Amino acid sequence: MTSETKSNLARLGLMIAVYLILAARIPSYYSQPGIAALLDSAVLAGIIAVGVGLTMIAGEMDLSVGSMAAFAGILSIQLFPYGMVPALVIVVLFCGLLGALQGFCIYKLNISSMVFTIGTLIALRGLTLVASNEKTVLIPFENIAETDFLSAKFFVFSIPSATLLVLVLLVDFFSRRTLWGREIFAIGGGRGEARAAGVSIRRPIIVAFSISAALAGLAGALLSFRTGSASPLGFEAVLLEAVTACLIGGIALAGGRGSILGVLIGLFTIRFLVSGIAALGAPFWMQSLATGALLIFVIIAEAAVGYITRRRRMARALTTA
Amino acid sequence: MTSQDVSHRAKVTLPKTAYGLIAILVLLVVASVTTPGFARVDNIFVVIRAASLTGIVAIGMSYITISGNLFALSASALGALLAVLFALLTAALGFAAGLFLTLGIAVLCGLAQSVAISLIGNPIITTLAFGTVFRGLAALSSGNSILRIESEAALWLGTARPLGIPTQSWAFIIAAILSWFIIRHFKIGREIVLCGANPKAAVASGLRVGLVTAIACAALSIGVAVMAIMTVSQFSQAKADLFMGYDFDYIAAVLVGGIALRGGKGTPLQAALGAVLIALLQNFMLLHGLSAGVRMTIVGLLVIASISLFHILQGRGR
Amino acid sequence: ESKGTVVVFVPSSTNPYIGQFQLGAKEKAAELGYDIKVIENNFNQSEQDSQVQQQLASGETVAGYIWWPFENAAGVGSLRALSQSGAPVIVSNQYPIKGTEAYWTAYAGANDFLSGKTAAEILLDACAKADAKCDKGAIIRFPAGVSAGDDRATGFEDAVKGKLDVIDVVPTAGFLEDEGYKVAAQIIPAHKGELTWLYTQNDSLAGAAAQAARENGLTPGKDIFIVGGTCHGDSKHVKSGEIAGTAIQSGYWEGWMAMQALGKFVVQGKVVDGESYLEGTPDAPPSDADPLYKYNFLPNPAVANSQAAYDAAKLWGKTADQLCNF
Amino acid sequence: MLRMSGIVKSYGPTRVLEDVDLAVEAGEVMALMGENGAGKSTLVKILAGIEPADGGTISIDGATVSIRSPGHAQAAGIGYVAQELSIVESLSVAENVFLGDETLGFFRSAASLARRARPYLERVGLDHIDPLSLAEEHSVAERQLVEIARLLSRKARIAILDEPTAALSETEIVRVKAAVRTLAAEGCAIIYVTHRMPEVFDLTQKVTVLRNGKSFPAVETAGLSIGDLIEAMLGRQLGQMFPPRAAHAGEEILRLDACRASGLKAPVSLSLRKGEILALAGQVGSGAGAVLRMLAGVTPIQSGSVTLEGGAYAPSGIAGSIARKVLYCSDDRKRDGIFAVRSVPENLSAPALSAVSRFGLLSPALEGEHVTRIARQFGLGERFLGRLAGNLSGGNQQKVALGKWIGLDPKILLVEEPTRGVDVGARSEIYSHLRKLADEGLSIIFASSDTQEVLGLADRIASFFHGELVRICDADDVTAESLTRDVTRASEAA
Ligand SMILES: Nc1ncnc2c1ncn2[C@@H]1O[C@H](COP(=O)(O)OP(=O)(O)OP(=O)(O)O)[C@@H](O)[C@H]1O
Ligand SMILES: Nc1ncnc2c1ncn2[C@@H]1O[C@H](COP(=O)(O)OP(=O)(O)OP(=O)(O)O)[C@@H](O)[C@H]1O
Ligand SMILES: [Mg+2]
Ligand SMILES: [Mg+2]
């Protein structure tokens, strides 16, 4: 068993523990509709976390996803008259394009993406306000029933939550089994090393940022369609949740390590926790404290495990030297 | 986390603060030509006042950045916690005690974060987690109510204008000069810069990296405390939802000031200039009656443009 | 014996007004014999949406819902889902969007249009009393995109049409003093000698604006008239006359009346079409036996800007001090 | 086959290459030599597409090619092993072998990569390694060999190796040499950058020398002597590489009694006298460096005792050893020796901040005095003082890394690989500075895998093998052969 499998199992264990602790007090955690709702609640942060996770694996971080999702939400509702599917496709493509442009600038400027995307985070939010005329935009109420199919459940899945799961599998496959995906891991694990070995830096950066933006766009559009409206101020908190999911899911901030499946585990760990605490009727600061505590716990555990493996490796190197 | 290759090319020799000054001058000229009422002296004071509190925190944040710890995401939440605690302590023990205890607690919060950063090795995650905890504690200790204080001294601190300049602006100017002086002329300042430049070499040279992180975190916490105390004093009240969503403002000021995120370079003065530049632009747009969306878009573009410019001027693009 | 659980969706008690709302709802629920569960979302509409999903999925039978969406329009989908559960839904605080009537049982809460209108009346009154010429002025608004701000501005502008000249509508970054101060401190000097009044949408912003005015050599209540229109936190600016006056908008009573509306529906089983402005009597709260209307509005009794007036002001048996300083 | 002509390259205002020519034929190994900073790496980086050239042409088989990215270089059949490791630690060994190789198709599985990587790993003697294991689990030497395996897998027509053996021990160097010979035999044109003279004479047919960014026509290796080569590189004759030894050494200053630490398999006992230079000779992983790290407080002393000037010495961490004036300079100056983005004076005063400040305030006068003293002692010219340390050449960087300690009045200087990657000219300067310091009473221990350096610089030599101390002798009693035998005892035993 590789160390990565081990760490993923440990994370899975943590997720199950959180689930069981809360399930003991919340009956709906066992019921089919309850699980369906939990899955649904993970869609927004989940789809976005997949994209952000990919940029983190590349050793970058896309901070602009929240604004991108809000922008996509406004755009998709405004395009609703042309039909939902065309609107969705246009929005996702457009966001993907914006993301590619952003990735290209980051590559070309050779600048830290955290610096650059703080700028786009602010600018895109402003643009969203401008595009929406600073008002929440709505699907006409007579048409709102048209979006019902997005909330319909098939067993425990809805279309959005199935989309999330399919996306996770797809992106996981992409990241592990394709040249472009491996390039993302390579430049995250060692930018200069990968470049010296002949890996193009431009392609993986552009690919990671355009996937991240396209997924943020998809999440924003899907969620806005489901609720039938989009607010220019929406999706502000999603970045922190997505990044937290990635971190709990084992994606290293330094890049190059982690897996998209791990992100899913991290995501459900916080969803179980946050939804559970809210469902118990506890005030917000309890959610806040619990999330913070969980994150601190995970990173300290990680630091400890890392320390121990380094010691072991050193000891092993000594005995085999 | 940075995408730069480690390359050392020739640098443009003009100090980066000069670019900030030039940008401010250009904006000033353009603005004063196009905006009636903009170039008046009192409007300049208004802008500096508007930049003051953000600027003080940005100055603290620049210590984090220069010391090689990127940035902290817990400043706004810590601000809320400190505001609430300052109000509680002042109400219970009086202004002086409230002031010093709050500063003390701020330093402790900074130290706690620095210990965690040293253990975990990642300032962003650590402060992300601490931020949620601070906000939770702020809500918890405020009991979800508005905390009012009645203190003449606090009111003076929050609203007085010695020599016609608001206390907040005094604090900002003093903080900028003081922190520049510390970085430039104090031994610990040099240590901060060196630790940011290369932490491993700093350890090997016997520099106190742990202490440096602690000082940087404490500097930010003190900046946050000053902001919190002055805000509470000005309005004689505190709430747990103060400063919500401000973190990116502080970071934007640091970035617009042209401080390299990789650490080891730049001075707190640049963060102060960045804050003034953003406030100047905001003021200009406010006076032009631009809508919130347009204002935000332009500030975002300013951040992008200024960081790109600094970057290209240093010849780091591809 | 409990009559069932009422589930209350609110943004977050980190905001003291919402804390008061919860308190009012809880006390009324206890009085009526209901259990209450409050679900907070920390100002995040998508989180609130998934909380609704979660709640509905639990299959719990509830006595009813109280719905305070964080983002009014964006929450319509969730509101609709709640209504489809069959349990009564009382909407509160955020004035329902036209066209959604089928999704909720009754609205019980503040009326932001009314709040804007009351503020306008206070302002006009103050100008008239001081015999000052009020014409040009500005509205300092809640952040762009917040619907309560839009509604209050609309109510205010409707009420002052033809009487005052609104030259500027400026969105702030937030709802709190420091954010209001930042805007006011830049707007006032830039329009010096031009602004005769300011409407700031709440008293936190008004107090900050008064401070900014004073710092610019303007005496609030003389050179410039400032009104917020909802008492909130610091009453010192009202008592000292700096703010032209205020109105009691009580989070406590809003939560209370939302819960009362739900109780009324359970007992009476019907909703009368139309609007009802609950009477702002000083002493007795409205009776549970009154009919439930489709729209039930919290009264916004105006309070004049003097210590005496403030001390005398009462709503439904609680003093202004109890209701405004939480 | 390959012809580069008129290559020009500047970094900002500094011209690094001016009008450089280079030509290699198929099946030929060409040594590229020159002092540190001569521009060797820059030249091969241009060929490998890592850096763009400002001017000049590159032609392959007579056709002019334009190489603007590593991808172009690969397409042109150029394989490249970089001077710094280019192994991504978080990827598997197999993926590292095929890193940057787009010919394997868009879809790829770990198992098939591993299968394909195995033959190449075997050719560089890494058959014991699991191709699926992560690169970080292996030693630096093994990782370097993985890079050679990558070069083999590329089926390159032109292979560039930039100091491939700098981090390797003799046995591994043998494997690299064998791999290079096979490549050449297969008709590959090879550019081989190295500072190691024996390799040049052993492996290459021609030598091209770069000096100050200018190239000299290639010469046949066979007709060259070491002296000629050095003269060509330096543009002058290297008088005496090593300074004369000390006439006498003082009393004992440091004594180790049966000390163990991580990296050591058997207890080590040795002593050091005042003004003496002691060499710890050994290949990579021999434990020579481990002794230094133990004395420097980097790794704890697990057992045994150390006596410094008659008192017990057990440093807790690096600050502890600095407090006792036992100072350590590691073998990786980029990593922890210099502050690349800060100026040279700031680097030189870094460990001595307390000495150059008063009441916590830096004193410009004290600092200036401190810096000029070191600069004078270490031959760092005025013109370097205004520069960022990262912009200096390797030799000058090493002077900064070493020199910064001198200001602290050390009792014992511990130096690991004092001249790794430093050219002959700077090397001889560093040796004479170290000797001068020793003559003034400083005691020096250095660890080195360079036999010549050990023999030339040390008063006494302690040889190490596989974590054990082999023997301690006076330098006069040691010959190159006996030393090589001591530090490679394994090959004898095997
Ligand atoms: N990215 C860069 N920016 C600025 N100057 C550089 C850069 N890379 C190299 N230099 C400078 O160019 C010169 C040539 O460097 P190069 O690495 O090619 O030398 P080299 O011959 O390979 O030396 P070594 O033997 O130390 O490897 C040196 O003076 C070096 O300082
Ligand atoms: N900083 C360190 N801390 C603890 N252990 C280390 C450290 N560096 C290396 N080691 C361990 O010490 C052992 C020997 O290290 P290394 O390969 O560098 O040989 P060395 O003793 O330095 O020999 P030399 O430098 O002469 O080649 C290795 O197994 C390594 O794991
Ligand atoms: Mg080189
Ligand atoms: Mg070593």
UniProtKB/TrEMBL annotation, chain A:
Record keywords: Cell membrane, Membrane, Plasmid, Transmembrane, Transmembrane helix
Q: In which compartments does the protein localize?
A: Cell membrane
Query: Does this entry carry the keyword Cell membrane?
Result: yes
**Cell membrane listed as a keyword:** yes
**One Pfam annotation, family name?**
BPD_transp_2
What is this entry's stated membrane topology?
Answer: Multi-pass membrane protein
Annotated transmembrane regions: 12-30, 36-56, 63-81, 87-107, 114-132, 152-174, 205-225, 237-254, 261-282, 288-308
Name the predominant localization: membrane
Name the CDD domains on file.
TM_PBP1_transp_AraH_like (cd06579)
Protein known as: ABC transporter permease
From TrEMBL, chain B:
Which regions span the lipid bilayer?
18-38, 44-64, 71-93, 99-120, 127-147, 167-186, 207-230, 242-261, 268-286, 292-313
Principal subcellular localisation of the protein: membrane
Pfam families, from UniProt? BPD_transp_2
Compartments where found: Cell membrane
Question: Does the UniProt entry include the keyword Cell inner membrane?
Answer: yes
- Domain of life, source organism: Bacteria
Q: Which keywords does the record carry?
A: Cell inner membrane, Cell membrane, Membrane, Plasmid, Transmembrane, Transmembrane helix, Transport
Stated membrane topology is: Multi-pass membrane protein
Membrane: is it a keyword of this entry?
yes
Protein name per UniProt: ABC transporter permease
At the highest ranks, the source species' classification is: Bacteria, Pseudomonadati, Pseudomonadota, Alphaproteobacteria, Hyphomicrobiales
From TrEMBL, chain D:
The GO terms this record gives for MF are: ATP binding
Q: Which residues cross the membrane?
A: none
* Residue intervals of the ABC transporter domain: 2-237, 248-491
What highest taxon heads this organism's lineage? Bacteria
Q: Which InterPro entries match?
A: AAA+_ATPase, ABC_carbohydrate_import_ATPase, ABC_transporter-like_ATP-bd, ABC_transporter-like_CS, P-loop_NTPase
- Protein name, entry field: Sugar ABC transporter ATP-binding protein
The positions making up the signal sequence are: none
Cross-referenced PROSITE patterns, in alphabetical order?
Answer: ABC_TRANSPORTER_1 (PS00211), ABC_TRANSPORTER_2 (PS50893)
- Give the family per the record: Belongs to the ABC transporter superfamily.
Its keywords, alphabetically, are:
ATP-binding, Membrane, Nucleotide-binding, Plasmid, Repeat, Sugar transport, Transport
**A Pfam cross-reference name:** ABC_tran
